[in-house]
Design a protein that fits this description.
This protein is α/β, with parallel strands linked by helices. It contains 10 helices and 10 strands. Strand 7, helix 2 and strand 8 form a beta-alpha-beta unit. Transfers a succinyl group from succinyl-CoA to L-homoserine, forming succinyl-L-homoserine.
Length: about 375
Amino acid sequence: MTTTNEVAKPQVLQVEEPLALISGAELPRYDLVYETYGELNADASNAILICHALSGDHHVAGVDENGKPGWWDGYIGPGKPVDTNRFFVVCSNNLGGCRGSSGPNTVNPVSGRIYGPDFPIVTCKDWVNSQNKLREHLGIDTWAALIGGSMGGMQVLQWAIDFPDKLRHALVIAAAPKLSAQNIAFNEVARQAIMSDPDFHKGRFIERDTTPKQGLALARMLGHLTYLSDDMMGSKFGRELREGKLQYNYGVEFQVESYLRYQGEKFATRQNFDANTYLLMTKALDYFDPAADYEHDLSKALAAATAKFLVVSFTSDWRFSPERSHEIVKALLDNDTDVSYAEVESQHGHDAFLLPNEHYEGVFRSYMQRVWKDIEALGGAA
C-alpha cells in the first residue's frame, strides 16, 4: 500500500454553545479540528468517521502541507480498504488533543490564558458528544460506519451505546471494553514520569517557555514498550550490542535501548506532543468502562446497539489481548447482534493495527465492501 498524494487540509468547527462534561465541568465553547477525504454523496449515506488512538490526531490519510503521511494512510485512500473513491471519510482531533482542537495548549476563553492543567478532564463519552456535533454540522444523519483502533475502538463502542441510531456499522480494532489493572498501572507510571520532570511546572510549562521533554520521552518509551511484542523485539533486536562488545557502564549498550531512547526523543521533540494532553488521554483511557452504567454488565450496555460489528484482534497484542475482544464479541452475541470477528496472526503486538498485514487488510477490505453494499442498497451509491 502506498501513500496517497492528496494534500489534506484541516478544517475547524467552532462550537459556541457550552458542552457539559461527564466530570461535572463545562466547556463554554470549543473547537474541533478535522480533515475529510473523498466526497459526500447526495443523500449523505457514504460517510465514515475514523476515531483516533492516544497519540493520533485528525491527519489520518493523505499528506499534510509538509508532506507527512496520515497515521493510517496505508488503509485509507483511493483503492485502499477504506476507499475514498467510494466513501467520505472524516477524522477529528479529540477534545483535549494538541493538534488544534480545544485542549491544554489552547487559550481558555474565560481567563484569556493558556488552559494548561486547567483544561477539564474529558472522557470517551465527551469525545463522542463533541463528534456528534461534527456529524450534525456536516449534515450527516447516520454514519455508514465508525472505525477505530485501540482508544479509537473504545470510542466506536461508546458511539454504538450512546447513539445507536446514528451508525450502521462499527469496526472495533485492537480494543477492549475497559482497561485492566496492569494497563492502568502503565498509564500511571507514564503520568508520573511526566509530572516529576522539573520542567513540568505543575502543568504550566508553556507559560514558562519550556517542555518536560525527559518526562515525555520516558512516558513514550514505556508506552512504546507495551505496544510491541516480545517475539517482535527478540527478532528485531535480540541481545545485539550497539558497539559490538560490552562497555560495563550505564550508557546505551544494547540496540533495543538505543531504539527506545530514539522513540522517546522523537516523540518529545520532533512530534512535540503536549504533556498535559498525554495526561488527559491516559486518564480518559483509565475511566473508560461503559458497562459500569449497566450494573457492570457489558451485554446490557450493548443491548441497545443496532449497528453491525466487525471486531479485530491480533495474536501478539498483550496490551489489548484477543481475550478482551472476545468479551466484546460475547456481549454482542448475547444480544443477537450481527458481529464478525477476526483474530489476525501478527508479531507486531498492539501496533499491528497500524501496520501492513495481508490477512488484516483482506478482512478490512472485505468488510468495507459489505459497508458499501449496504450503501448501494440504500440507493446512495450512484
